[in-house]
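Researcher: Let's run the pair from yesterday's discussion. Sequence first, then tokens, for each.
Model: Starting with the first of the pair.
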Amino acid sequence: MSRQVVAAGCLAGAALLVVMAGGPVARPVRRLRRLVPRATARRRPPWWPDRIRLGAALAGLAVLIVLGGWAGLFVGPLAGLAADRLLRRIEPRAVRDRRLRETADLPLAADLLAAALRAGAPVDRSVLAVAEALGGPLGDRLGRVGRTLELGGTAAEGWAHLHPVSGAERLVAAAVRSSNSGAALAGALTRLADDLRSDRATAAEAAARRAGVLIVLPLGLCFLPAFILAGLVPVIVAVLGDVL
């Protein structure tokens, strides 16, 4: 078996590990009555470092096999270290799906909290009711917030469970400020929900415009050489023929 075949097999194994790194997407759990510690949304699964190390080792081995000799012994470990650094920056699919769902559910959670508070429910019961109705990863976080407040924790301690959620900083700040000053929280939550939806619409519009620009780039790269060959080159050749 040639060295190229072995190297290709190593690279294929590393690529397969990267593809499988996302793992299965966990279904939302609604057991809000149990004080079970859960990993944060940005924590990587426990098997993630093992796959990263194995994929980086396979990439370094492929470089070692292809180069061979002293060059392979020197470049192979460097390639493995570089692959390890790059692969560790990849976000697992389960973590990404959880993060996106939390961000998408945040405006609805703010509206539901505002409605529960306007109905006269206390903050801890309102948070627990919204967590049970909402479900999913954000519901789990709100459940921990509500249980912390129900057990006598401070507002800063309870709402700190939402810090990893993108866009929840303003909600946490408004809740803590309301707890300290006694200001009404429902109105702030309604305005926050509107702002979050507006921010999401703006981000979606910017992404659509960016996609249009990125689509035009390959067309420009194809059109420019064709324009040069079909438009400019004949003119230059004709001018040079007349001059010479």
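Model: Moving on to the second of the pair.
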Amino acid sequence: MGEQLTRVRRSDAAANRARLLDVARALFARDGLDVPMREIARHAGVGPATLYRHFPSKQDLAIEAFTVEMQACRAAVDEGLVAESAWRGLCRMIERLCELHARNRGFTEAFLATFPDAVDLTSERRAALGAVARLAARAHAEGRLRRDFAPEDLVLTLMATRGLDALPEPARPAAARRLAALIIEGLG
């Protein structure tokens, strides 16, 4: 009987954790990182103590919640690096990153670390900018990328995607693609 009760508790805890992550992902994407932890707990149908038992801080929760986005970001950069044409790789990377960031306001805030309580993604950002620098050097060698491009310009691109928050959610992906096209046009 005790073993059965333990299994029920474990599955209940796992379900609570999964629900908390789902709710956090949705609220962070929609509202950014300013969402209070109590609000996340309330939307997940659990008490704050349950939330804090699984995620002692908002940073812990956000890092776990943004795992998929970080993987997508890394994949976009990695695909750009292995592209036969550095220019095409850079363009495709910009398109994918604009779409990714337009879909998730919280991830953009965390990645850019634009306010004091932001999740620390410094090492991820540093790695991404290092990869962009290598890709940009190859695109410069191909003669396709404007000479004054710096990897930090990618940060400006991502900052520009924050303006897409003003649009209704269904319009953001198309607007992100259009923004990426305009940015790419300016880089060539």
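Researcher: Give me one sentence on the second I can quote.
Model: The two ends are 69 Å apart (CA to CA).
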